[in-house]
Amino acid sequence: MDLKAIFESTGVLEWILLILFFISFLIQCYYYLGVYIKLPLYKPAKRRKNSRGISVVICARNEAENLEQFLPRIMEQKYPEFEVVVVNDSSTDQSEELLSEMTAKYESLRYTNIPPNDNFTHGKKLALTIGLKSAKYDHVLLTDADCYPSGDMWLQSMANNLGGKREIVLGYGRYERSKGLLNIIIRYETVFTALQYFSFALKGKPYMGVGRNLGYRKSLFFKNGGFSGHYHIASGDDDLFVNQHAVRENTSIVLEPGSHTVSIPKKKTGAWIRQKKRHLSAGNLYKPGSRIRLGLELISRLLLYGSFIAISLISAWLWPAMILFGLFMLIRMTIFKLVMARLNERYLLLPSLLLDPILPLFLGIIWISNIFESKKQPWS
Known about the structure:
CATH architecture of the largest domain: Alpha-Beta Complex
Number of domains: 2
Strand order of the largest sheet: 3-2-1-4-8-6-9
CATH topology of the largest domain: Spore Coat Polysaccharide Biosynthesis Protein SpsA, Chain A
Low-confidence stretches: none
Helix content: 40-55%
Mean pLDDT: 91
Structural class: alpha/beta
Distance between the termini: 63 Å
Strand content: 5-15%
Order of helices and strands: HHHEHEHEHEEHEEHEHHEEHHHH
Number of strands: 10
Shape: globular
C-alpha cells in the first residue's frame, strides 16, 4: 500500500501517536533490558571480611520513642570495632535523658546536643556535619532514628564494601509493610527508586543513595567541602552528596537481605507529601547527565501509557500496538518481580500495574507545587 495513501487515510494525529508510542516503547525497553536487568542479574564480588573501625551517625529530632525502640538493635550489631554517634538536634522531648541513660549501658554510644534556639534555624545538614566531625573513624555509615537494621549483620555487610577504592557504599532501606493504600504507594516508590539507583550504579552511573542506609569515607566528605555546594536547600543531605561525588570506581552496592534497614513509613498522606516535597526539591541540583537519564525515563513512560490509551480510542492500529504493549508489560513485570525478590519485597507486583503510570503524575504535581512554595522546609 502506498505510504502517502496510508498517511492521508490515517490522519496526522494518528501518525503522531503511533510514532510517539513506538519511540517510547523502544526507550522503555532499553531502560528495562539495558539498565534495570542488571540488578536481578548482579552477582556481587567476594569481599574480604572488614574489621576496621567504623562510625554510625544518626541525626534525631524529637525521636525519643524511636531511639528507645531501635537504637539497641544498632548497638548490638556483631562487629568487632564500632561506635554510634547520635546528634540530638534541638529536641524538646525526652531524647537527651534517654541518650544519657543509654550511654551508661553502651560503652560505644556517644551523643552530642544542638540546643533549641528560636533565633537560629537550620536543617539536617548541620546536624549531620556535626556528627561526621564527631566520628572518630574514617569509615562512616548513616541511618535514621526511625530505622532499624534487618539483622545483627547489617554493619558487617555494609562495612565489607567500604575500603580501598570503594569510598561510597549504597544500601537498601525498605519500609515496614502495613495495611492501607498509602503504605503500598510508599513501598512501591521505594522499590522503584532503588531499582533505578542500584541499576545505574551497576552501569557505572551512580547518582544517588538514601540516608536510611548509606556509607562513605569521612575524608571524602570533608575533602570535597561537605554540603557547601547545596547547604542553601533543606534536602539533599544524602542523594546530592552521592550525585556529586560517586563514580564507577569509588562506588559499591550491597543487596543481601542482612544489609537492609527497615523504616517506619508515614501514616498520614499529608506527612508523606511534605516528605516528598523536600526530597524532590533536590533533583534540580543533580548533574545534567543524571537529570537527562531520569527525565527521559519518566517522559517516555508517560508517553508510552498515554499514547497507548489514545491509540486504543481512535486508531485502527490497535492490535499491533497491543502486541508491543503486551510485550513491554511482560518485560516490565518479569524484571520488577525479580527485583522485588532481590530486595526482599512482597505484594507489590499487582499494585505496580496501576502505580507505574499514575505515581509519576502525582509526584510531578508535588514537584511543580514546590516551585510556588518556600524553599525552607523542615528536615524531619
